[in-house]
Design a protein that fits this description.
single chain, alpha+beta, Double Stranded RNA Binding Domain, four-stranded mixed beta sheet, two-stranded antiparallel sheet, 17% strand, extended, membrane, respiratory chain, NDUFS4-like_sf, transit peptide, electron transport
Length: 135
């Protein structure tokens, strides 16, 4: 079964095994580079338009009472100001329609305030820098 395919397409195997010329790769790589202006990333994120221009707080969390070492000290976080919360009448749980409600606590941690500011500017968010933020 392999021999009729090889007879039909003799150059296919050689074409797949031969590396592409370097000049072709560099031309494609330079075409793929696009300059992203501040605030443009939010436009393609899929988040509704009313949530794109949010105000965020950039802060360094306080040390917890049970924390003795300095392992998590000096990190910076981004937290969104909470909007649109209500109590669910059936279960009594707090519900939200905010797509950014739990994003800040989950993973927006930075090593410096400057990198957190750059991230907020890249997404088009207005920010306020505070040293300690408590919920």
């Amino acid at each position: 079964m392999a021999s009729p395919l090889r007879r039909s397409f003799p150059s296919l195997g050689r074409a797949l095994l031969t590396p592409a010329p370097a000049r072709m790769l560099s031309a494609e790589a330079s075409d793929a580079l696009v300059e992203i202006k501040p605030g443009e990333i939010g436009m393609v994120s899929g988040i509704p338009e009313e949530h794109l221009r949010r105000k965020v707080v950039i802060y360094s969390p306080a040390r917890t009472a049970s924390q003795q070492g300095s392992g998590k000290v000096g990190r910076w976080k981004i937290n969104f100001l909470s909007t649109q919360k209500w109590e669910n009448p059936l279960m009594g749980w707090t519900s939200t329609g905010d797509p950014y409600a739990n994003v800040g606590e989950a993973g927006l941690t930075f090593n410096s305030a400057e990198s957190a500011k750059a991230f907020a500017e890249k997404h088009g968010w207005n920010y306020v820098v505070g040293l300690v933020f408590s919920l």
